[in-house]
User: Fold these one by one.
Assistant:
Number 1:
Amino acid sequence: MSKDEKAITGRDESYSDWYIDIVRKAGLADYSAVKGCMVIKPYGFAIWENMQRQLDKMFKDTGHVNAYFPLFIPKSFLSKEADHVEGFAKECAVVTHHRLMNNPDGSGVVVDPSAKLEEELIVRPTSETIIWNTYRDWIQSYRDLPLLINQWANVVRWEMRTRLFLRTAEFLWQEGHTAHATKQEAIDEAKLMLDIYAQFAEEWMAMPVVKGVKTANERFAGADDTYTIEALMQDGKALQSGTSHFLGQNFAKAFDVKFQDNNNKEQYVWATSWGVSTRLMGGLIMTHSDDKGLVLPPKLAPIQVVIVPIPKPNGLINEAADKIIADLKAKGITVKADMDKKKSPGFKFAEYELQGIPVRIGIGKRDLENGTVELARRDTLEKMNVPVEGIADYIENLLVEIQDNLFNRARTYRDETTTSVDTFEEFKQVLDEKGGFVSAHWDGTTETEKKIKELTQATIRCIPIGNPQEEGKCILTGEPSKERVLFAKAY
Amino acid sequence: MSKDEKAITGRDESYSDWYIDIVRKAGLADYSAVKGCMVIKPYGFAIWENMQRQLDKMFKDTGHVNAYFPLFIPKSFLSKEADHVEGFAKECAVVTHHRLMNNPDGSGVVVDPSAKLEEELIVRPTSETIIWNTYRDWIQSYRDLPLLINQWANVVRWEMRTRLFLRTAEFLWQEGHTAHATKQEAIDEAKLMLDIYAQFAEEWMAMPVVKGVKTANERFAGADDTYTIEALMQDGKALQSGTSHFLGQNFAKAFDVKFQDNNNKEQYVWATSWGVSTRLMGGLIMTHSDDKGLVLPPKLAPIQVVIVPIPKPNGLINEAADKIIADLKAKGITVKADMDKKKSPGFKFAEYELQGIPVRIGIGKRDLENGTVELARRDTLEKMNVPVEGIADYIENLLVEIQDNLFNRARTYRDETTTSVDTFEEFKQVLDEKGGFVSAHWDGTTETEKKIKELTQATIRCIPIGNPQEEGKCILTGEPSKERVLFAKAY
């Protein structure tokens, strides 16, 4: 493939083209023949696997277990919780038949009208209903609680406007569904999972997030409270990156899930659900990448170090490379050597910059004679000559430094792009000229929230957790307010 | 739950009830509200995760990478390969609409007739078609080959008669789809993956298998050759446990996937696909379990050792347990201690036998005074007193011994239940009275194969790889035959 085919649109030119170029040209994902559905390519999937592995560990370390529930949800189940069906009915893939047949006119294969299902099945957009219908059989007594279950699954929401990773008709995610004896325990669980999401986002993705609670208008369909982590992308738009819901007894009541408490009294069960999805891939890309391509935090990079011979492999270079590879592998650092003789070093440099590999080692004959190699950092694009002696230790530390630098750089950007305003004029001006999070007073009504969205496209991303209480006046209505909330335009 | 609720049907009484009892009562899986779809419960899923982890490692160690392709397949894609659509059209879940709406009569939610899809989408029964449609964009030159891609996914085949794990409408599996420049390379790949499946079955599941090739009649729809591993269950029925297909150029031709070879000549790409599924769980259960419940090979057991205080926990017992737990964990052995004071040791013994935990340690005060504990092996149900000193080493060896014993026991059974016959009378008699594999001559025609199935329900499971060549006469027609094939009744 020529260099031009790999060239990506600049962020200034078109941020959305830049994003799609990176996703496609770095080999992360692509559109498929099925409208709105993506193909996750091997390199993109390897990053997602790294995310999964760490999240799964964090879930298990906090007592959760995995299970698997059916892909299909009977239509009547979806209808049992009123808000829930309202939230999902308009974007459902509906299975109506279970057989194809040869068209009697010989023109190919058609749906067999005699194989119509008695009740339509919905491809799960989320699994609260099928899971709570199952929990009814699993929960009788307080001794059966808590149930702390997660599933890794594909879900389908028939979106009209899609964008790779950020919004697709089918996506991959995990959905936790827990059942508890008390309200407080369920709230604690919802908050614990929010903390785990925030920790994962910050420590692994190097993506700073604001933890907060959603307004009633932005809640998950069927939740009493929705907690969220909100990140800020480089174009000043927010990305809702993970949510954790306190579901109250809504699904327990809809599916009649009761338990005998330790006083032999029958009670409805309390619930949470929480999820993150392949959308995180979009957040990862948009938080760190630049006009040369993807930038990956070392903790999630499938390949952390790439070795490129300069200009070509030879005996001496190969020998040095083998030694470095062995030393890096011994430290658990993933490394690839590109010994292709047909491609120039410059071509390879561009290729691995596009792929976001955190550290590149260039090994040249002259440097080797001086006992050094050339290291290049993907985050800063800095190059440095480093002694071969002790290079594995050096790189081990460098990977930590890159991980930290990516986080700090993103946090600085986020902090600098968060603005407090006190008037609606300022509010509009900041949104138009600077973007980012805007911290402002709001009168607490859904009406005002909707009006502000209508006028500015900005939504309330969250009411931050631990928000300082402060007297103020709603930027739109002037009504009294006790705290600021965080607005932004969002993906 | 009382002991009676946990009691399982004896194998002699009803083998199929015994199987379902184990699956449900050991907490592996259960039926769901959706016809033919199962819920995989946490304990069952933990076993499946162990299988996945090992298989995934074996795939990656042989150069394969994971990716993800859409759940939905446009109806027209399925039709492009004639044999393929013939094989799958009758068991397809078909999505016809993408929206629900409130019923105008107020009676609930109905399919919105205005949201009919232009082309129906099939929930993937297998992904050859959508993947080869994608490969067309990925493959231009011999330099793009081989493509060695696997995906872990759910698939749906609308089966009328289902049985937990063995045959369900939705199941979980992995499907490898590889693309090659030459026929030989594709055949080698299909055989390599068969070897990996066999190695996994024997070394991890402790389930002996026969490797072989399917007859034309039993081939995968769209394959030129189907390789299979066939295991023998305790009721004398065979279980096809994994298949690997040499697909020739069938899908490349159907989806127009060509490449330029190194002579600049355009050629169609050669293909393989291969898969194992949650059906393996059924094989695992039926190979080893007994009338007390599940028996798990140590390499796949989520909990390898359980500690039960006799009769109840106390300071001395807890201290001894903690020490043993620490020593076992240091060796990477998974261990659980059941310190529940309300349940009797006998109750716990039955519970963990039901769950198939390979080793039980009973810690009692008197034994401790003698410096010993009581070990019980799940495979043989033997009990033995063992010194506490060095117990972790002892158990480490014991787990290896149990793994070996399970495999050897199953192999002995398989060998003893494989019979060579030379007449059709013998053939029928063995099938009726003894069951198992029956090795017999066959004239090589599909007609005879179908006739034998009609008369006896037995099918040709495979033509074993490395089969000795031997002159003989077909048991049904008396026509000449060059080798024996393996018949059995099968799941």
Number 2:
Amino acid sequence: MERLLRVTLVVIALLMMALPAVAGAGDSAAAPGHAAALTFFWIAVILIAAKLSSLVEKIGQPSVLGELVIGVLMGNAVLVGIPFFEPLKQDAVIAFLSELGVVILLFQIGLESNIEKMKAVGLKAFAVAVVGVVVPFVLGTYLVGPWLLPGLAFHAYLFIGAVLTATSVGITARVFQDLKKLQTPEAQIVLGAAVIDDVLGLIILAVVSAIVTVGSVSIGLIGWLIAKAILFLVGSILVGQLLAAQLGKWLAKVQTGMGMKFTLAICFCLVLAFLAQQIGLAPIVGAFAAGLVLDPVHFGYFKDPKVVSDVKAAMEGCAPDVKQKVEKAIEPHAYSHVEDLIEPVAFLLVPIFFVMTGMSVRLETLFDVPILLLALGITAAAFLGKIVSGLVAGNVNKSIVGFGMIPRGEVGLIFAMMGKSLRVISDSVFAALIIMVILSTLITPPVLTYLLKRQDRKSRPSA
Amino acid sequence: MERLLRVTLVVIALLMMALPAVAGAGDSAAAPGHAAALTFFWIAVILIAAKLSSLVEKIGQPSVLGELVIGVLMGNAVLVGIPFFEPLKQDAVIAFLSELGVVILLFQIGLESNIEKMKAVGLKAFAVAVVGVVVPFVLGTYLVGPWLLPGLAFHAYLFIGAVLTATSVGITARVFQDLKKLQTPEAQIVLGAAVIDDVLGLIILAVVSAIVTVGSVSIGLIGWLIAKAILFLVGSILVGQLLAAQLGKWLAKVQTGMGMKFTLAICFCLVLAFLAQQIGLAPIVGAFAAGLVLDPVHFGYFKDPKVVSDVKAAMEGCAPDVKQKVEKAIEPHAYSHVEDLIEPVAFLLVPIFFVMTGMSVRLETLFDVPILLLALGITAAAFLGKIVSGLVAGNVNKSIVGFGMIPRGEVGLIFAMMGKSLRVISDSVFAALIIMVILSTLITPPVLTYLLKRQDRKSRPSA
């Protein structure tokens, strides 16, 4: 607790230094670089809040949960009369940095994932994705919709079903990452299924929009959408593997510094994220594909070549076999992967995404009892539909896969907003859908953490 | 050359992949995350262009020169009918990232600088700053102005003089960094003088604006400005040293990971940059101060604690003295500084600043002969005034200090724009001042490189 107190005091001291300046910020609006400097301040506030919140790790929770919760607190502080954080919600630069943050996160996850392992679980992931799209869609459109909201147009039920299909991979990926479980088959299945789910979601969105606006949908359009998405994924992985291998060989030959490796890697990620978005997929799908194909061997580098020569010099006159053993022991440490260079960028940007995701939660929507009840019904369908998808995951921990698929996140929000702007769903249904997204986002991290730790205990019963 | 060809081919391949998408980007403006994804693409374009341009290193030039030149080419491609890069100029997010980039650069430079060395050259830096402000101001206001532009109001000459006083530290700092000369007394004097120059510039800007708008200026205002600036610099260095030492001790005690160290360091930089801007200084001055005070000992971390234990295990049964020697050889390599974590962030952001600085150069201003001649006169005064300041730098290479002070950059631009908006200077004088800023920015890197290399040759005549 003393530690917590110290951190808090330091933060308060920092904020005290800055607060009068923020309060008076309006006065000097004409000063050069004003907008940028204010954003510097907000980035610092978000990062410090995120680090403070990572104290949840002390109670065994992944730090992503802390980041989400502190975001919820910051975003709703205005409800208890603290409007301090409100400007953050309108800051376009922060919104961009948050999107860049989740792109960097999925790139990192892709780098840490193994493409061979992904291929091995490919069919299972496909099955999980399909079940995880079909079941929630059917539940939403034909059961929960008509049952909880009798008398609405079929289009409204269609949209509720569509919102339930989305999977947001960011939250789950962070939980797996925080708990160092990315290499497990469960994590690989969820990651693969989430990517496939994004493609399916793209198709559903197009079909549902066409039905609502035009009244029908052509098989040609659906075919074209599917072809585009498959072309992108297969193409970027095949072309990417070739290109990355070529680039890697070239890098190995010219002996460039880590600056070149970092730049090529990050540009690869950004270009694929951009291309994914251009064909209608989420940018994070492109970033993940980029991470998957980057050649782990060729994008490595000697982080510190001098260590080997220094140690050799120190061992002058030593027995040759000891020499060899020591050199062998050092080598893996002297050699490093481009992941290590991406990590600091992730330190800077990833917390912005999760704190801002938390900030977008509007707690006041929970205060309306009829809407809340409706939301709980929809949420139940949302959970059930995805948990069921875990059943087809084969010989792995099915609950981990099922719960890993639960978070809806931004894709669900986009569906809901589209339904609202097409006037297919009412404001109260919209609010209920938002609550469903919130609950799916906030409940998943602790549940997944519990399941992963239970699995650990089971596999080591003697511990 | 074959290497260059390969890089070019890879870049063309990447662009080919993206180009049709950019061309069709207007169609899918409604797609989610569209604006962000387009900015991802632009960041990739800037970073690849910057890395391509770093080929100037092969001809012994610092890579910052390459970044500036490729920026100039991109920014003026529209003159030869290629409007491809024009949207970049309006991208608010890119503008922010560029400002963040120069803040990160000056933080890095501050981290690499030694506060004791800075104190040792403090008086010399002060002398250089004062001469480097007074001489250009007098030259501009009383000589070049009245001589080249007879018959203008005194206020106009005053603004020309004021524009000539600014020093932009970014360019020079990058040249010293690229050539690994940051630890030389010349670099320390220039860095110190540039910070002091920013304070003097703040005062001059306030005084000149007051004279032009109100007609007079109160001693009280000047006193308050000086007091604020000194309070900030001395205060942030004193409080910062205390705070950084406290934080450092705490970090050493709680054994946090590098994530916490990185976050605290970068937040420290961002908050000081913000505070500097709030009192009217450039944010980079705050970032530099933050880098200066961060405790290099306590913000270090073991990047790879396992290397030591692995090597110990490999040396099992070895003579104790050899063991000790080897462990001693490894230790400095296993231990790392927070600088290493800032570096990848700098890889991502710093090139954006220099490419965008290059892009802001408008080559068409050089086509008007009378304006060009006027510009050359003003530029001569600008160069002379700063070169003279090197003469008071004491027992160091005076030309390196003098030329290091030459770049005007954004501070000069702000002065010029204020003069234009107050209608004190005409459009053609404004254009001439812009050309002066351009020339001071583009000529400095090669000249400084030449001087630094000549110094190297002199100090090692036998090489």
